[in-house]
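If you are new to this repository, start here. Below is one unmodified record pulled from the training split, so you can see the exact layout before writing a loader.
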Amino acid sequence: MAKIKGISLTDIERAALVKGQRDGKTYTYRNRCQMILLKGENRTSKDVARQVGCCEVVVNNWLKRYQAHGIAGLSLREGRGRRGILQKETDLLAVRQAVMKNRQKISVAKQELEQELGKTFSVLTLKRFLKKTVVYSNDCVA
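And here is the target side for that same chain:
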């Protein structure tokens, strides 16, 4: 029989994990909350892994992370994934000026921006950047 790495959960921690399991934004976050809840019932990692559909090493890793950082440790950390080509902090002003100058031709604004910023990107990238920052841009104008 495998050694049980147990965790004792307070009522507040258990309630937060149940809420995370029920209302979490992503499937992975809800799954991680479920892992910790099952480990709180003194189940083996192998049993928990079989129930949630992963391996026992993953269960133990998330248990360690929960013990170190609490429920906040179960969510993904910032900075994962590829950084965007256009950054709000550095490129927003230049993008706004180029788009205001060429409102009817986004492709012309794109060409000007590529020369000014020294970056290559597609029209679709520029459109996504504009869509993502429109609320921020409207706040700056007001």
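Two things worth knowing about this chain: The CA atoms of residues 111 and 120 lie 9 Å apart. Residues 11-74 form one domain.
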